[in-house]
Design brief:
about 425 residues; 5-stranded antiparallel sheet; 5-stranded mixed sheet
Length: about 425
C-alpha cells in the first residue's frame, strides 16, 4: 500500500464476483440527500448471530471523521503522529489509491483523540476535507493533489473550540458553506468551491459541531446554521441573514451537535445539556416558535425524519439514552426504548434502520410510529467509543471506531 498509516487486515474472497444492489453513493455527511436515508434496495432482511459478512478492515490513525464514498472511491481522514492524513481507498477492497498528508499541532483539551472530526465531500473531480485546526483543502479526486487550501482558523482568528473543528462543510452549487466561528463577522461563511476564496461571511457566532443544512423554502435557497449561540438562517448565495433564534444550553461546557432538520417551511433543532428541542416555522420576516420542550434531546446524532415523525436518540449520557419516536409537528412522544442501544447513531435504507451502538455492535431494526422491532444484533465488532455514524454505499455498510474502519456486505444474496 502507498500509505504506512493504514494496514489491511481482512479481505473476504470472491468480493468482486458478488452482485451489487442498486447503486447509491454516500458522498458527504448524512448521505446523498443529507438526511441519513439511502434509496438503496435489495438489502438484507436479517443477519446471523455472527453479524453481517465482513469484507475488509483497515487500521487508522486517530479520528472521528465519517468516511465518504463515490463510485469505488472511499475517502477517510485520520491522524498519525503530527500529520493529518486523507486516504483514498478502493471501496471494494480497502486497498490504498492515494494519500495526502499535512502537518498538525492540534491537541484535544478534554482527552479525546486529536484527529479530525469532519466528513469529506466527494464530487466528480474534487475531494474537500476540513481538519481539526480548520485546514480546508480541495484535492484532485483522481490523484489527491492539492488544488487549494484555506486556513480558516488562522484567516478568521478562530480560537480552538472544545473539540477542535467538527462541523463538516456543505456543498451548495459552487459554494462550500461552513460553520466557521469567526469572531469578527465570520461566524458562518461561504467559500468558492473552485478557488477557496471567501464569497460571503456573516454574524459573530462561535462555531458549533453542527453541519449546516440547505433547503428551499418558498422558492428560495437558504442555509441553516446551528451555531454555538443558536440558529442562523441565511440566503445561501448571498449570506444575507434572514433570521436568528437563540438555542443553546446555559452550561458553558456544552455543545450543539445535531444538524437542523428542515421540512417544508419548518425547522427542527435539538441538543443535549438540558437544551431540548424546538420546532420553528419560517416567515417572511423571521421565525415563529411552534413548540419548545424536551421531546428529543440529541447529543450529537442527528435524528431521522420519515413520514411526519422523527426517530433519534434522546439523552446526553449513555445511562439515560433512549431511542424514541416523536411526531414532528407536535413533539408528541409515540414510544421510546430505554437502555438497549446507548448513544447510538443510525441510517435508514430499504425500510430498515442500520444502527451502530457506541459499544461497537451493529443492529438491524424496523421502526414506525407504532413501535420498534429489533431484527438482528451483531457481536462487538468495534471498540468503545463509536461516535461516528455508519454509512451505506452500493450494498456495503461501513462502520468505524476511533482507529479502525470495517466494510460489511449487507446485500441480499
Amino acid at each position: 500500500m502507498k500509505s504506512d498509516s493504514i494496514r489491511l487486515l481482512v479481505l473476504v474472497p470472491g468480493f468482486l464476483s458478488l452482485q451489487f444492489a442498486p447503486a447509491a453513493d454516500w458522498p458527504m455527511y448524512l448521505g446523498p440527500e443529507t438526511n441519513s436515508i439511502s434509496r438503496e434496495t435489495g438489502l438484507v432482511d436479517s443477519w446471523p448471530a455472527e453479524g453481517p459478512p465482513e469484507v475488509w478492515r483497515v487500521n487508522l490513525g486517530d479520528s472521528f471523521s465519517p468516511p465518504a464514498v463515490k463510485g469505488t472511491d472511499l475517502i477517510v481522514p485520520h491522524r498519525q503522529g503530527s500529520e493529518e492524513i486523507v486516504d483514498c481507498l478502493d471501496a471494494q477492497t480497502g486497498k490504498s489509491r492515494w494519500t495526502f498528508k499535512y502537518p498538525t499541532r492540534y491537541r484535544d483539551m478534554y482527552g479525546y483523540n486529536s484527529g479530525p472530526r469532519c466528513s469529506p465531500i466527494i464530487t466528480e473531480k474534487e475531494v474537500y476535507t476540513l481538519g481539526a485546526e480548520g485546514e480546508l483543502y480541495c484535492l484532485e479526486r483522481q490523484t489527491g493533489k492539492q488544488r487549494w487550501l484555506r486556513s480558516i482558523n488562522t484567516d478568521y482568528k478562530v480560537k480552538q473550540n472544545f473539540f477542535g473543528v467538527g462541523a463538516s462543510p456543505v456543498l451548495e452549487g459552487n459554494l462550500l458553506l461552513v460553520n466557521v466561528g469567526g469572531p469578527e463577522g465570520a461566524g458562518v461563511a461561504a467559500f468558492d468551491r473552485g478557488t477557496g476564496k471567501t464569497v460571503w461571511a456573516a454574524t459573530n457566532d462561535g462555531a458549533s459541531y453542527c453541519t449546516p443544512a440547505v433547503a428551499t423554502v418558498s422558492g428560495k435557497r437558504y442555509g441553516f446554521f446551528l451555531t454555538r449561540a443558536g440558529l442562523v438562517i441565511t440566503e445561501a448565495t448571498t449570506g444575507k441573514v434572514h433570521s436568528t433564534y437563540p438555542f443553546r444550553s446555559r452550561k458553558f461546557e456544552s455543545v450543539n451537535g445535531a444538524t437542523p432538520i428542515v421540512v417544508d417551511d419548518m425547522v427542527f433543532l435539538s441538543a443535549a445539556y438540558q437544551t431540548g428541542s424546538a420546532l420553528l416555522r419560517m416567515k417572511d420576516d423571521g421565525v415563529e416558535e411552534v413548540y419548545r420542550g424536551f421531546e428529543m434531546s440529541n447529543h450529537w446524532g442527528t435524528s431521522v425524519y420519515m413520514d411526519g415523525h422523527l426517530y433519534g436518540v434522546d439523552g446526553r449520557h449513555e445511562s439515560e439514552a433512549n431511542f424514541r419516536c416523536i411526531e414532528f409537528k407536535t413533539g408528541k412522544l409515540k414510544w421510546q426504548v430505554d437502555g438497549e442501544l446507548g448513544r447510538a447513531t443510525m441510517i435508514v435504507a430499504d425500510g430498515k434502520f442500520f444502527i451502530l451502538t457506541e459499544r461497537g455492535k451493529l443492529v438491524l431494526a424496523q421502526a414506525s410510529p407504532e413501535g420498534y422491532k429489533e431484527i438482528s444484533r451483531s457481536p462487538t465488532f468495534l471498540s468503545y467509543p463509536c461516535y461516528t455514524p455508519p454509512i451505506l454505499a452500493n450494498g456495503f455498510l461501513y462502520a468505524r471506531d476511533e482507529r479502525k474502519l470495517i466494510c460489511f456486505d449487507v446485500r441480499k444474496k
